[in-house]
Write a structure and sequence with these properties.
Layout lengths: L14 E4 L4 E4 L2 E2 L17 E10 L7 E11 L4 E6 L5 H6 L9 E6 L2 E2 L3 H10 E4 L12 H11 L4 H14 L4 H4 L9 H13 L5 E5 L7 H18 L2 E5 L3 H7 L2 E6 L2 E6 L1 H5 L2 H6 L6 H11 L11 H17 L1
Parallel strand pairs: 6-11, 6-12, 9-10, 10-11
Antiparallel strand pairs: 1-2, 2-3, 4-5, 4-7, 7-8, 12-13
Bound molecules: adenosine-5'-diphosphate and magnesium ion.
Length: 331
């Protein structure tokens, strides 16, 4: 009966439908959603499973802060999940559990079936889950871009040739020319290039999961767009699972398959962007907003115009407005 639980996930050309077994394949990855349900239920074991996670900083001291409170969620292989929430809602704390940097105070986090609190599993977690910190460009420590990106692969005990191949691939994927920038000091790069070099350092680990903490913060609009395109590329080429924290609802609308909303350390909502953005009032109550085109179309509809709701992008909004105008012209 598994086929009843399957429906198309991607509208992209990547998808090929295998009617024989009822699975949909996208770039070698399988996703299964119960038919007619908006909740995602992966049939494969999730890459990351968070069960009743509570994290308390400085427990037992006057500075004690409960930064995550009983959070549970699952992330499927190959998924593109956005994590949003007001400042201090626990986003960074959550993703730092995925590579074992933080351990649960209560509850459990499993990555690829291994408990992150388990000492042995913890030792290899940094290879499986590449974490790009907020403002990663402040953390270069080698003299050249090449050496900085090579740091991880060298620690994996790879041969010189393998290290070189990984570094060059990672730089290219991040949008940098290995020949041009490899021997430069990372500090001589422009802001956007520094960010890309830092991301290359994590890509060189060839992780199964890529978690990025506000990767587009501080970049100009073109830099943001390029970085997001590259992330989508990496996901397509490697089937890597991507988790990204962002303050930009526009980015969520454009890229994410699902979005998790944190509010004061609790998981307030999780679901497809269209579903989440239809709850604009609740989001505003948490100090969040919906993308501008979504808000405009909701208002047009509230004023009695026959436009679709759940609009996510400028392009979709333009189409709806064009339809509305042509309808008005023909009456
Ligand atoms: N190292 C820390 N020590 C004590 N409290 C912290 C630490 N890091 C974060 N916090 C607190 O935990 C809460 C969640 O922080 P954080 O996960 O950084 O949120 P976000 O990334 O959503 O802004 C905040 O109240 C913050 O002040
Ligand atoms: Mg943060």
């Amino acid at each position: 009966m598994q086929s009843a639980y399957v429906q198309l996930i991607y509208g992209s050309g990547l998808m090929s439908k295998d009617k024989q077994n009822g699975y949909e394949e996208a770039g070698g990855r399988f996703f299964c959603f119960p038919k007619g349900s908006k909740r995602t239920v992966p049939l494969l074991p999730p890459v990351i499973k968070v069960e009743n996670l509570t994290h308390v900083y400085a427990p037992g001291t006057p500075f004690q802060v409960t930064s995550l409170d009983n959070v549970s969620l699952e992330i499927a292989k190959g998924e593109f999940l956005a994590v949003v929430g007001a400042t201090g809602s626990g986003k960074s704390t959550l993703v730092q559990h995925f590579n074992g940097l933080l351990k649960p105070t209560r509850g459990k986090v499993t990555v690829c079936g291994r408990d992150v609190s388990d000492k042995q599993a913890g030792r290899t977690l940094w290879r499986k889950v590449g974490l790009v910190f907020q403002r990663p460009e402040q953390q270069f420590f080698e003299e050249t871009v090449f050496d900085d990106v090579a740091f991880g692969p060298r620690n994996m005990g790879l041969s010189r040739d393998e290290v070189k191949e990984r570094v060059e691939d990672a730089l290219r994927l991040a949008g940098l020319d290995p020949v041009q920038v490899g021997q430069l000091s990372p500090y001589r790069l422009s802001g956007g290039m520094k960010r890309r070099a830092a991301i290359a350092g994590v890509l060189a680990l060839r992780p199964e999961v890529l978690a990025l903490d506000e990767p587009t913060a501080g970049l100009d609009p073109q830099g943001k767009r390029q970085l997001l395109d590259r992330l989508e590329n990496v996901r397509r080429e490697w089937g890597v699972t991507i988790i990204f924290i962002t303050h930009s609802m526009e980015e969520v609308g454009l890229l994410a398959e699902r979005v998790a909303v944190l509010n004061r350390g609790r998981l307030a909502m999780i679901g497809a962007p269209r579903e989440i953005f239809s709850r604009a009032e609740e989001l505003r109550g948490m100090g969040l907003d919906v993308p501008v085109p979504t808000a405009i179309m909701d208002r047009l509809r509230a004023a009695g115009n026959p436009v679709r709701t759940g609009i996510l992008s400028n392009t979709e909004a333009e189409e709806e407005i064009a339809k509305l105008l042509s309808g008005a012209a023909s009456t």
